[in-house]
Amino acid sequence: MACMKLGAKSEAFHREGQTWLCTTGLPSDVIIQVGEMSFHLHKFPLLSKSGLLERLIEESSGEEGSACSLQLHGVPGGAKAFELVTKFCYGVKIELTALNVVILRCAAEYLQMTEDYEQGNLIAQAEKFNDMLKSSTLLQDALIPWP
């Protein structure tokens, strides 16, 4: 199956029950609830890639040094898609595949992960991979002999 690998870092997260924790050694400064799953993260990797998260974090940031808490409702693909999006934001290795590209593209759109925030952001990467899939399907169809 075709896939596109994004990111270079090894795994930077671990799961404890219904909670994903970042293992960078720095305390998290934002907690995002997606469905039943809680993600303890850092603002900067999210702000640099997501227009929606930038706006929500800005609106809900309180005292300096206190963690910001957000609830995201309606994330396409739910917590599983958000987990992959989060890994993308941190530069952790993820694979785009024919099975996940559409839902990741939808989640990236929901989170406003456009080129305005970073060149090669997730919307562009998902579109690039989807175009590659379409091209390979067209090529395969062209090479299959007629009956």
UniProtKB/TrEMBL annotation:
Q: Which InterPro entries match?
A: BTB/POZ_dom, NPH3/RPT2-like, SKP1/BTB/POZ_sf
Task: Cite the SUPFAM superfamilies for this sequence.
Answer: POZ domain
- Domain BTB: residue ranges: 28-98
Q: What Gene3D superfamilies does the annotation carry?
A: Potassium Channel Kv1.1, Chain A (3.30.710.10)
Q: Which PROSITE patterns does this UniProt record tie to the protein?
A: BTB (PS50097)
Please name the pathway.
Protein modification; protein ubiquitination
- The name on file for this protein is BTB/POZ domain-containing protein
The species this protein was found in: Prunus yedoensis var. nudiflora
